[in-house]
């Protein structure tokens, strides 16, 4: 029936999949950078040749964040006004704080990657540029421990801010939870570890060490229970708030296609499949490349599904 | 310097929708989208004591504005008269304000590509005639527009004498759109 006061369901979904893609890529970038730096710091000498996972991580981090930002800008309804974000800042807005953070994180991340690929770049057609900035790069290399710590902190900031971006919104009960930033940080880290393993093996197979692979696989396995606990806490926390919020939890976990996506894609890809692989094929940390790749891809898919699920289910299930 | 506010007296409202139509034509609201809706529910109660409920949906002109605090560029702002408004030149269209408004009062205007909502006809009817279009067409005077900072304004008397409610008060947004609720109701368990 047409109500005389008009249609009620205009604008039901405000943010669409590009936002989920951005949230995923930003989390991936932050996780990959943190993973690369941790692996680098495990080696006391910290000198070239760099480990495959260091190389993969420092390469993934700038690429994913830049692609993510491009997606984000083109998703604005006024992409040409984008520069306004760089001139006006509202320190009460998580989005503005994010812009500030990314303003430092993105270039520093790229510079760190250049530092780690210095040798390769100096031999390429870019050698004049590399020579020009030789002094700066030497300086950064000498202080790369501190430079790395700064980038690590910024990466952590990027990992949590995407969660704060959503949790600041009171309109949607599923977003408005203090658990969300930690959940996003943890799942971003888990996708970052997975990406480092996957691309480390695929792109830099000569530098892969079994020992570090095992270390990262164990790390990723540890993040899974933490992530599951955070998801559990998110839903239980909302449920105990009662009223509308309890209804949101019940419908978000049991009704419609998004509940399906939660159980099949989020839980299936990021908890069940990795656990099964870890307990069977990779038992006792056996080094089986195909299963390691399968495991990492499954984790990355699961983390993307989580972003999609939170984004859409949050906007759809309002409890009222 | 004023603090504009509005009273929606649901006891006087008859659900005629003239306010909605006035709003549409005054502010050129695109087809299928709304700055203002008056929804009708009912009838409620037991015959012969029947009543309808009328509820106004529009920007609540919050005093503590979620939409303004999330806006990264200050494109959403509160002007010197307490009206929450949008500066199209500064807006990048991130739609953060649309999701942050707990009253679902904002929508994306497909023509301007900027969020749109009630602004008390700031640039149109209010500027020309001193009150929003919806207020001037209401046949039953269910809408009263005024200045909360002025003790002599009629809105002051109404708000000090009548019971009023504000939507989602637990959020602490302090809306400046006041509703005088229906007295007639039904017992529902
Ligand atoms: S009702 Fe929504 S758009 Fe209006 S002032 Fe409040 S938060 Fe902003
Ligand atoms: S859509 Fe425009 S007005 Fe709304 S928060 Fe973004 S920049 Fe501000």
From TrEMBL, chain A:
The chain crosses the membrane at residues 20-41, 53-74, 94-115, 150-170, 182-204, 216-240, 260-282, 289-310. It comes from Campylobacter sp. CCS1377. GO terms for cellular component: plasma membrane. Its main location: membrane. Keywords: Cell membrane, Membrane, Transmembrane, Transmembrane helix. This is NrfD/PsrC family molybdoenzyme membrane anchor subunit. Signal peptide: none annotated. Belongs to the NrfD family. It is a multi-pass membrane protein. InterPro entries: Electron_transfer_protein (IPR052049), NrfD-like (IPR005614). It comes from the Bacteria. It is found in: Cell membrane. It holds the Pfam family NrfD.
UniProtKB/TrEMBL annotation, chain B:
InterPro entries: 4Fe4S_Fe-S-bd, 4Fe4S_Fe_S_CS, ET_IronSulfur_Cluster-Binding. GO terms for molecular function: 4 iron, 4 sulfur cluster binding; metal ion binding. It holds the Pfam family Fer4_11. Keywords: 4Fe-4S, Iron, Iron-sulfur, Metal-binding, Repeat. CDD domains: PsrB. It comes from Campylobacter sp. CCS1377. Residues 4-33, 48-81, 82-111 form the 4Fe-4S ferredoxin-type domain. This is 4Fe-4S dicluster domain-containing protein. The keyword Cell inner membrane does not apply. SUPFAM superfamilies: 4Fe-4S ferredoxins.
